[in-house]
Amino acid sequence: MHTKLFIPGPVDVRPEVLEQMSKPMIGHRSKEASHLQRRISDNLRKLFYTENEILLSTTSGSGLMEGSIRSCTKKRAACFSVGAFGTRWYDMAIANNIPADLYEAELGQPTTVEMVDKALATGKYDLITVTHNETSTGIMNPVAEIGVLLKEKYPEIVFCVDAVSSAAGYKIEVDAWGIDVCITSTQKALGLPPGLAICTFSKKAYESAKQVKFRGFYLDLVKLYDTIQKKDYQYPSTPSLSHMYALDYQLGCIMEEGLDQRFARHAEMADYVRAWAEKNFELFAPEGFRSNTVTAIKNTKEISVGGLNKELARRGYAVSNGYGKMKEKTFRIAHMADYKIQDLQELIKQIDDILGL
Ligand SMILES: *Cc1c(COP(=O)(O)O)cnc(C)c1O
């Protein structure tokens, strides 16, 4: 039985998209491969509202998170965290011997412009990492506002943003917001199987990275950038061409749907789930900082989240329990990628039925 996934990645992938992955291989040094990768990059530039270069990596999103903090930090990184994924970036820095400090918001609260300003005023840093959409808590951070602060007061700082669970489900204007490296992976709002990471890469980030002596090898962003310039969008090592077929196809579908329509569809699904959650439970994220792709719900009725998921599984659905310590204290419903409002209505009907709401 096909389980309809309402977990924040991997998401359900449409059969037509999956079919793309069974197409025959082409040589990764062929003209065809160049065309494929160029078309993907051109469409991704539209999706991210940027003129910067696009880099792909045959890893999950974490690959480019690690690659960016290692490649681009010359002096010291400030990592802002509102949950598990924000802290992951700090852990990656430490594991790579990159000097870094962790700035954690209070649980359930966003990263604020004031927090970033205070940290950067010390003059210790040349790079910051911020999570746009924290999947573990359903918080969306004010990345545009942080971008304004950087433009006005700290224009030399390299601004790295984890948009893994929001890109393609929320309008992220990379150039207008001043983001230097904006990262996503395929298995979230893009609606593809896991296996590729994607990032935008600014000239500023590139110039900064060029001054870093030890950038590693496979995830060296300078090497990825230089190679695609020299070899017409080809990569230093063999990429997952199957994922690229699917990504190319899916980006075509996304452009056909229309970016504004796609973001509006996500907003509509989010509004619907939030209204249901507020009627029956409480929302975990504070007003104004709520994610449009995943909703974290406080388990105020003290239902058994494990029990709910067991019964949902029997009926062919899955939602997520809370992350880590919040396993039974919250639960999460993802509303991203290619689902429509009707899919969420169908899920909520099942939950209402199971819980007797
Ligand atoms: C899923 C996720 C990641 C990790 O991405 P992978 O593709 O699993 O490596 C990082 N950050 C956020 C916010 C995520 O939701």
Number of strand segments: 15
Strand order, biggest sheet? Answer: 2-10-9-8-5-3-4
Q: Could you estimate the helical fraction of the residues in percent?
A: 40-55%
- CATH superfamily placement of the largest domain: Type I PLP-dependent aspartate aminotransferase-like (Major domain)
Rg is 20 Å
Round the mean pLDDT to the nearest integer and report it: 97
- List the ions, cofactors and other small molecules found in this model: pyridoxal-5'-phosphate
Q: What's the CATH topology label of the largest domain? A: Aspartate Aminotransferase, domain 2
What class do helices, strands and sheet pairing give?
Answer: alpha/beta
- Model regions low in confidence, pLDDT < 50 over at least 5 residues: none
Keywords:
357 residues, alpha/beta, Aspartate Aminotransferase, domain 1, Aspartate Aminotransferase, domain 2, seven-stranded mixed beta sheet, globular, binds pyridoxal-5'-phosphate
Task: Describe what this molecule looks like in 3D.
The chain is an alpha/beta fold and 357 residues long. It folds into two domains: 4-10 and 259-355, Aspartate Aminotransferase, domain 1; 24-255, Type I PLP-dependent aspartate aminotransferase-like (Major domain) (Aspartate Aminotransferase, domain 2). The chain contains 13 helices and 15 strands. The protein has helices spanning 15-20, 31-47, 61-72, 84-95, 113-120, 143-153, 174-177, 203-210, 221-230, 241-257, 259-280, 305-315, 341-355; strands at residues 4-5, 53-57, 77-81, 100-104, 127-131, 133-134, 139-140, 158-162, 181-185, 197-201, 282-283, 294-298, 317-318, 320-321, 330-334. The strands form four sheets. Strands 2-10-9-8-5-3-4 form a seven-stranded mixed sheet, with helices on both faces. α2 (31-47) packs across α10 (241-257), α11 runs parallel beside α13 (341-355) and α12 (305-315) packs across α13 (341-355). It is globular and about 60 Å long. The relative contact order is 0.17. The structure holds pyridoxal-5'-phosphate (PLP). Pyridoxal-5'-phosphate binds at residues 8-9, 60-62, 85, 131, 133-135, 162, 164-165, 185. The site of pyridoxal-5'-phosphate has 14 residues, from α3 and β6.
